[in-house]
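User: structure tokens for this one?
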Amino acid sequence: MPRMPYPEPTLYAIPFFLVTLALEPWLLARLQRRGRTVRGYERRDTWASLGMGIGSLFFVSFINLGIYAIASVLWRHRLVDLGHGALGWAAALVGWDLAYYWNHRVEHENRVLWACHVNHHSSRLFNLSTALRQPWTPFSGWVFYPGLALLGVAPAMIMISAGINLVYQYWVHTETVERMPRWFEAVFNTPSHHRVHHGSNPEYLDKNYGGILIVWDRLFGSFTPESAPVEYGLTKNIETFSLWKIAFHEYGALGRDLQKATSWRERVEILTHGPAWQARATGGASPHDPSVRASIR
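Assistant:
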């Protein structure tokens, strides 16, 4: 792992991750004894998630260095300098979160980017270890985040905000918390909101993209509250604990679909549209039809 030219919050959070990962199985078992329906842990699934997290520390470090390098170039051409006080940090944290919302949403709506992001959704369980099942190839970050430097956010503050955003999202991957207070649920991402995001139920697909704030989903029409019990995982589960397959299986599927395509136009559509586009191309159904979206995701 390369040495970062800025403090990396996720590294400082590792002791917290380890302690809470050790405690959560006990809490879930206690809830099960009280009659709560929770999925809990499965040893191989947990090790796969931890392996993906360790791999992400290595691969994503290089991607983050790229974001930092691009932001440093853009910083020379900044429109303003928001400084390192409250205004600068507010812009950094909120700006990253808004950029994260759109990056995350595009990852679900573009087949190439979905191939990168899909591994985070591949577990059929939902616990704190699932939070560590991180993508290895999130290159789209080079597009969505460095522009904050043009708006006056210092590059180091951009990257620290990235780490804070990621650390916040760790705790929302749990079944131990049913609901937070109503005011908190209205503004922030919570376990309830994020359980929806990890659901393969047709009504839950491609909802609740927010990182720290759920207000972006409410503003841009992608919010759905938790109602029906959540079925975690993919609508076509990969049934493997191989890190290689978890990380790259969708790239293989994408390559096979491109080979089967009968025209260059169809290949471009497969690459630039969402995971449902193949069904539209072959069956005429709309990619926004939930039944079609669920059948191939």
